[in-house]
Amino acid sequence: MNTGDGGGAASAASTSGANGSADAAAPRRNSKRPKYSRFTQQELPACKPILTPQWVISAFAVVSIVFVPIGVASLLASRDVVEIVDRYESVCVPANMTNDKVAYIQNPNISKTCTRTLTVRLLGSLVPKHMNQPIYVYYQLDNFYQNHRRYVKSRNDGQLRSKDKANDTSGCDPEDKSGNAPIVPCGLIAWSLFNDTYQFTINRASLNVNKKGISWKSDREHKFGKNVLPKNFQSGPLKGGATLDPNISLSEQEDLIVWMRTAALPTFRKLWGKIEVDLEANQTITVTIENNYNTYSFSGKKKLVLSTASWLGGKNDFLGVAYLTVGGLCFFLAMAFTVIYLVKPRKLGDPSYLSWNRNPGGH
Amino acid sequence: MAGGRKKRLRFSKIYTFTCGKQSLQEEHSQIGGPGYSRIAFVNDPNCFEANNLNYPWNYVSTTKYTVATFIPKSLFEQFRRVANIYFLITGCLSFTPLAPYTPVSAILPLIIVIGATMVKEAIEDWRRFQQDVEVNNRKIKVRRDDGSFDYTEWKNLRVGDIVKVEKDNFFPADLILLSSSYEDGICYVETMNLDGETNLKLKQSLEVSSSLQDDASFENFKALVKCEDPNANLYTFVGSMDYEEQQYPLSPQQLLLRDSKLRNTEYVFGAVVFTGHDTKVMQNATNPPSKRSKVERKMDKIIYLLLCLLVLISTIGSIFFGIATKKDLKDGRTRRWYLRPDDTDIYYNPKKAAIAAILHTLTAMMLYGYFIPISLYVSIEICKILQSMFINQDLNMYYEEADKPAHARTSNLNEELGQVDTILSDKTGTLTCNSMEFIKCSIAGTAYGRGVTEVEKAMARRKGSPLPQVPENGETEGDNADTKSPVKGFNFRDERVVDGRWVNETHSDVIQKFFRLLAVCHTAIPEVDEESGKITYEAESPDEAAFVIAARELGFEFYQRTQTSISVHELDPLSHMKVARTYKLLNILEFNSTRKRMSVVVRNEEGKLLLLSKGADSVMFERLAKNGRTFEEETREHVKEYADAGLRTLILAYREIGEEEYAKFEKEFSEAKNSVSADRDDKIDEVADTIERDLILLGATAVEDKLQNGVPECIDKLAQAGIKIWVLTGDKMETAINIGFACSLLREGMKQILITLDSPEIKALEKEDNKGTIAKASKASILRQITEGKALVTSSSTDAFALIIDGKSLTFALEDDVKDIFLDLAVGCASLICCRSSPKQKALVTRLVKTGTGKTTLAIGDGANDVGMLQEADIGIGISGFEGMQAVMSSDIAIAQFRFLERLLLVHGHWCYRRLSSMICYFFYKNITFGFTLFLFEAYASFSGQPAYNDWFMSFYNVFFTSLPAIALGVFDQDVSARYCLKFPMLYQEGVQNVLFRWRRIIGWMLNGIWNAVTIFFFCACAFQHQAFRKGGEVVGSEIFGATMYTCVVWVVNCQMALSITYFTLIQHIVIWGSIAVWYLFLLAYGAITPTLSTTAFKVFVEGLAPAPSYWILTLVVVLVTIVPYFTYSAIQMRFFPMFHNMIQWLRYEGQCEDPEFCQMVRQRSLRVTTVGYTARREARTSKVNHTTQNGFHAK
User: Which residues cross the membrane (chain A) (predicted)?
Assistant: First the structure.
């Protein structure tokens, strides 16, 4: 906006220079005279914007004009997503065991099977809603600190990747060795692998859940070896979570791969599978849950989530609301500044603005 | 031949100096004992005993390091910084399991940082080394074994060598003078590099060796010098020389010091006694005090604050961590079983939760270490070096005539230049050129000389009237400047006198005597140029040179000096012919500060004995004979006028002496001269006093001590900028006051408070000569004067005051119990002039101001006598003028002319201050933003110490993604251009009052950082909760979350930068937007390499983030939300509460800068309240009196 002033100031400054012979003086031999360049004389052409009323108002206006549509679009995308959430960790405990849920979950003799019925409709309302495939099946854990440092560190990436390093269990303590034999995959993360299972039926017909392709491709191809087979897994005295088929290589154990991408926050979902058929509105789905995983020790919730995804992902109004709020706020600010500038034009050069004239310090 | 002529001179006969004065015997008896053990085998340095002595060679090294010591020593230097130790400790800890990140990522930045600083040290030291090489390889003639004198390098000299130093060369080591080209073995030495005194000093060899005048005579010369051990005392020397079985005592009179220069003497022979670092000058070399700027000192405080904050949040985190850990195992039941609390190590042991928590504190401190940016120090260094480069390269501070650009010798103090509150200036050589010009004289009661002094010009400008002295020829200032006198030191124009026309004046005989006195009464030595026949003079002081030159230009050409005579070409008034006259020189009564006069006794060709005398008016008028006071009234009047005009005056008088009287005087005088008692000098003075009486007044001379170019204008600008300027000078009060007016330090309407001991009661006491009572009375008197002055200053709020104090009073005023009151008074005054102050007093006053007010002081000076002051002040500026380099060598920044101070302070100082303080604020802001997101993430990871980001993201945060914009801010930012800096000097007060680096602003930036961190974290956490974040149904893992949050941080801090600066060159655009681009490029590159190295960052961008629209949308909204508050704040502040630089920006934007009247109005407002009254200013504005300068000449 104000480019060019720098140049003007520059020429003025250099000609008003005290020696005044900037042009005339032919450079002497061995002269220490600094060479003139706009860079060294700090006279580079520069843009010197200042926050004029026009700029302030138009900046706010532009922001609000851009943000409101994005906010609307985001909100619509989020509203489009159909999500069924079923919290089951309490209801699956038999009535006689509710006092000591930990004992319930730790007792291998009690059957953990639990049946739940879900209806395809909008979350929290009775509005029936059609769900288009693919429908993602998640489990959601709560109060589970996958981001705890002890937990995050407790893995060995080399061992997961290559067969040769099967004996390398450094960093996996205390789940590094079973007796003297190294555990593959070692470490707390793998050990605590989630082991609830779900079976979906609609009208007695079993609903097929695709368990392939639920993990990141880069993980399957580069981080988990194709020829690395689980060894001595869950063979210790204390059993953590799921067991792994010792005949299937790690790169195909997608539940493990998903689990080993640790979550950032203590409440997280993990992809469990994909349902690749549409679900009709108001359809009833029966889920048979093997409620194996112990969240009772740390009073964590367990939820089963069926959700579609939009271009923005799952159901979350936050972005839409944020955009609309910011857009609205900027619109308000634009209005407010317009009013202020009109009502109270600044008197130029009013000395009372100068802080040191108000309270001359030091003398 | 000049040499031959000089050879015949034996000055020791006519000078009264203490040639070969015997040192006290008791000192010499110590030779050989402890402290006096040095032995030099003169002319036999290779003998067996000499080889055993192991004295160093004459190699001098001023480097800080050698190749061997560089690594340990510079590392030690580095780790003297508290912050570096902190980083080293965290680096070491990072190798333990405590570390939240990999050791490499923690230690590498530290290595880079330390490495960079060490490279800088190495380069600086290399430069010093090169200087040493230059000095060490200078050539000197030394006697070889074969008897010839041959050139060799300085560094090859050894103790005992005999060297031959030729005219105008430096002495390569401390030498014992053996002989010189003069028969009596004297030589002239210029010691400017040692003590800053420009006058020449005389040295004389022992008589026994003075005859060794040619190369061959050293054939059989062997001597043994025993003397004191090397020490730093320049003015003492105790030793003896064993020569031909006799022992002769040696005194400082025979010692030629390294770094002083041989003058007026063809050559000298000397024996080397101290070499290399043993020389007195090297022993004196102290490492200059390391100075740190206020901004940096405050930065330290901020760092301590942040350290506290760091400890605080680490502790909070650890407490929560400990509680959570303890709960994990209760009665054998594990809570978070997936962490295996039952089988664990010390870092996470629920049974010993307290220990785990304490260890965790260390982890947390490492993790939040980003609060204390490791790169801040490096960035500051880089900025300062580049800022110094701009100072060095500034064409407006380049002095064409001397080919000297400004030179920032240290880059530490750039920003301090923007905060100067008080300038303490030397006078001679700093405000003035130290070139004397004979400009006026008063002969026989008639004033001659039409030259116009700077002061008169200033006065004329002020009054707006034509110059009072030259109304008839209508000379204007402009003409005057153009028709500069062609002869250096002579600016006398008067058609009544020049070209021999003085013979027609009424008192032509007096005029003749006057000029003759100028030509004869001096100690200068003529030098005839062989080709042109032109005569130049070498004199001890510029005043004296001016007199001889004046005499020459007026037809009394002094052309030859011999041992006993002075020859002058004179204009004979009768024949109008030039005739050669020779005056027989009988005695020289030297000048010294108590006598304040010098005289010669000569016998003219008619055989008459004449005493020719010149001296200060205070001593000369009282010595006039009754019949010699014919023109006293007029002369006094003229002298007063001259003094008013800022000129140095001397009174010229003469008398004829009768033969008998002379014989008596001669006898007493030689007795006094030859006496060896302690009061020898007093005796000489006494005898001289008896003959310097009953003089006949001839007239007075006036010599102008020329002000440097542009000094008044510069001072005016600095005063407008609210900087106090104090002058500390060795000159007498009158001269100092005159110069004060000349450079408008003293203004019209300013009330002068004089503090002096010249009161009659003190004088009466002095006569009684009771030292105790004098001191007591003096102190009481000073105290009284100060309190009175203070009362005066406090009683009136509108008047401006000037305080003038002399050196003697200063001694008392600087005593512990008085100095605070004195400082109070001094601070209350607009300007202060200390006259007759010694170098030490200068330093003391500087310290008083510095510590007493706590404000930034700047000392400026050119001579070695200013060194103390320069080193004491917060900033020392050396004038790299014609004088020695001593001041420059001990200064922080060297400029060639006083007037460059204006640009140095108002432009560079202001910019550097602004740049650096903004940069530091920004640095803390960006690191708090980053560090606080880590903390918030911790809160959601049960404070376990797991970082939210990949290790290398964190390490490179300060290196690649955010540092360059900060450095660009620190190097290039300009709030207003140089032109406006100079146009509105008041802008400078932003630095003095430290508005850009006060706590309010710093805390504001920190809060902004916290606000940004909170926004970034919670927006990311809410937007990327648990649901899928893109079409494929994938959820957000810690690596996606970290990279997203990091992207937001990079965007936010860079956009904040873009928003907070108002100066965009291409460089700014490149670094700001480039940093963001670099982040994405890094993410791409880092994600593409094998997962073994990239770990959690593997393909995180390509596979996870880039295809997800929610990632981009989130980034946009986070950036906007974080900067909208700041944007709103600055919009309001800019429009409704602009700071001074904002106002200038408005003016520029609205084009009002071109409106002179409007600018004047703004400038008027920007004047300091204390100096000029508010009402007076308004009156001035309404009456539209066009003051180009607010400072004026105060007509007394």
Answer: 55-77, 321-343
Cβ proximity of A324 and A71 under 8 Å: yes
DSSP string for residues in B457-516: HHHHHHHTS--SS-TTTT--HHHHHHS--SSTTB----TTTGGGGGGGSTTHHHHHHHHH
Active site positions of B, annotated: 426
Q: Are residues B637 and B763 in the same domain?
A: no
Contact A321, A329 (CB under 8 A): no
Asked whether residue B28 is assigned to any structural domain, the reply reads no
B831 and B851 part of one domain: yes
Q: Which residues contact residue A48 at a Cβ distance below 8 angstroms, ignoring those fewer than 6 apart?
A: A2, A3, A5, A6, B1062, B1063, B1064, B1145, B1148
Cβ-Cβ contacts under 8 Å, A269 against chain B: 1026-1028, 1035
CA distance B332 to B785: 86
Look at residues B232, B259, B284 and tell me which one is the last residue of a structural domain: B284
The 10s digit of each residue's pLDDT in B321-378 is: 999 999 888 888 888 999 888 888 888 888 888 999 999 998 888 888 888 877 788 8
Dmax of chain A from CA atoms? 104
Assign 3-state DSSP to chain A and report helix, strand, coil percentages, each to 5: 30, 20, 50
pLDDT tens, A223-241?
999 989 998 898 888 888 8
Residue B731 annotated as lining a ligand binding site: yes
CA end-to-end span of chain B: 54
- Structural domain span for residue B364: 287-372
Verify that B277 and B291 share a domain, yes or no: no
Chain B contact for A212 (CB, 8 A cutoff): no
Chain segment B787-824, per-residue pLDDT in tens:
888 888 888 766 778 888 888 888 888 888 888 888 98
> Looking at the domain assignment, is residue B26 inside a domain?
no
ipTM: 0.90
Partner-chain contact B1034 A192, CB within 8 Å: no
Does one domain contain both B911 and B1024? yes
Residue A189 contacts residue A151 (beta carbons within 8 Å): yes
| Model confidence at B960: pLDDT above 90 | no
Residue A286: CB partners within 8 Å, gap ≥ 6? A115, A116, A117, A118, A200, A201, A202
> How close is the nearest chain A Cα to the Cα of B1094, in Å?
11
A83 CB-contact burial (10 Å; exposed 0-12 / middle 13-18 / buried 19+): buried
Domain's final residue, options B284, B303, B332: B284
If asked whether residues B788 and B849 sit together in one domain, one would say yes
For tokens 């001074």, the residue is B1140
The CATH number of whichever domain residue B536 belongs to comes to: 3.40.1110
One domain, residues B800 and B944: no
Domain-located, residue B671: no
8 Å CB contact between B295 and B916: yes
Q: Work out the end-to-end distance of chain A between its first and last CA atoms, rounded to an integer number of angstroms.
A: 41
Q: Which residues in chain B (987-1026) have CB-CB distances under 8 A to chain A?
A: 989, 992-993, 995, 1019, 1021-1026
Structure tokens at B214: 């040619």
Say whether both B424 and B439 belong to one domain: no
Q: Is B1040 inside any structural domain?
A: yes
Are B335 and A298 spatial neighbours (Cβ–Cβ below 8 Å)? Answer: yes
CA dihedral B355, B360, B366, B369 (to 10 degrees): -110
Is A41 close to B1027, i.e. CB distance below 8 A?
Answer: no
The pairing of beta strand A302-307 with beta strand A135-141 = antiparallel
- At A333, which amino acid appears? L
Dist CA B1053 CA B930 (whole Å):
9
Residue type for position B1113: I
CB-based contacts of B514, cutoff 8 Å, min separation 6: B441, B443, B444, B652, B698, B699
- pLDDT over 70 at A114, yes or no: yes
**pTM score of the predicted model:** 0.81
